[in-house]
Amino acid sequence: MKNKILMGLAAIAMVAVLASCGKVPQAEIDATNAAITAAQAAEANVYVPAEFTALQDSMNAINAAVEAQSGKLFKKFTPIKEQLAATLTLANQVAANAGVKKEEVKKEAETLLNDIKTVIAENGKLIPKLPRGKEGAAVIEQMKADLATVDATVVEAQGLFDKGAFQDALNKVKAANDKAAGLNAEIKEVLKKARIRF
């Protein structure tokens, strides 16, 4: 009789252990999803896209593993809990990395926006000094049009910067900077050939 009671208690204990292993780790899943949402809010998809994609892939793999375990009679979520802990840590790191990268991009965009204004101002002063010969007038008009395009791009980049879209602002100002620097070199070359001081 005593053995039967012990066997019954052992069976109940075994079922309890298996049941505890078989519960979906919902709290961990929710915490990890919240951390991923926070990383997205930190614009990780913009500033550290490769890391953010890896994070999403990790969570997708966990969701697939949870789905697979849910269909089994004896569920085993311990390895999934370990993956969730690692993914939660990764999500927090990705959010932090996004913040650092965003600050770097902001500083770079700010520097380029200041630098390009100097180049634009110099180009504006140099264009009137260009020789006007037969083809000179047409070339000067083209340069003025290019300069106007650069100006418009810089205004657009400044607007994006002011809105906090630092990556978009940086992309725009880089393109404008290349164009402005190219124009500057071209203007100086023409002035040099014409022996006009600048």
Write the layout of secondary structure elements.
Blueprint: H1 2-21, H2 26-41, H3 44-47, H4 49-70, H5 78-126, H6 136-163, H7 166-193
What does this structure look like?
Helices cover 84% and strands 0% of the residues. With 198 residues, it is mainly α. The N and C termini lie far apart (109 Å).
- Poorly predicted runs: 6-11, 13-20
The overall strand count is 0
Shape: rod-shaped
Helix content: over 70%
What series of H and E elements makes up the topology?
A: HHHHHHH
**Helical segment tally?**
7
**Beta fraction:** under 5%
The end-to-end distance, rounded to whole angstroms, is: 109 Å
For the biggest sheet, the summary is: none
The Cα radius of gyration reads: 31 Å
The structural domain count equals 2
> What's the mean pLDDT score?
87
Structural class per helix/strand content? Answer: mainly alpha
What would the keywords be for this entry?
2 domains; mainly alpha; 198 residues; 7 helices
In short:
The protein is mainly α.
